[in-house]
Structure prediction request, 162 residues.
Amino acid sequence: MKKYSFLLFILFFLFLDKKIIAQDTYIFPKANIGFHRGGLYTDLQIGYAYSPYKSGFGLFEEMRIVSVGVESNYFFKNDFRLTPKICLEYQKGLLLWAIQGRLYPAKNMDFKQASIQICPQVGISIFSTGYISFGYSFGLNNRDITSDLGFQANLGFNLLRE
Prediction:
């Protein structure tokens, strides 16, 4: 399963490019790498961004993003899991506020019993294309499957290309 996740990562970025729906909205790929108590994770997401300014995305722009994707967790109690996730972000200038929601399956990818994890984050955005964020991930249910993941650090990329 791990070797296929890397292949999907490569294919994702080769074939998905920013599409302009209107002058101030974008669909684009996102990628993140980070760590929490469960170990190292990477994810791929498709984001939809809206900027109230007509000049595009820049250093002092405001941007609202909704994204969905899949997270790969490595070293998570010695098993590999693919986790669906959704993220809401608000970026204004250099500041980033985000909240992530994850649906962690039980071992062997059993989604019948899954743990919902929520992670509010705050961070620094760099030209709306890169960001560093820090948050705390905690479980809402089924904590016996996946306990709270605790503090999380994240390095992310919005692959917006003009």
In short: Residues 17-22 have pLDDT under 50 and may be disordered.
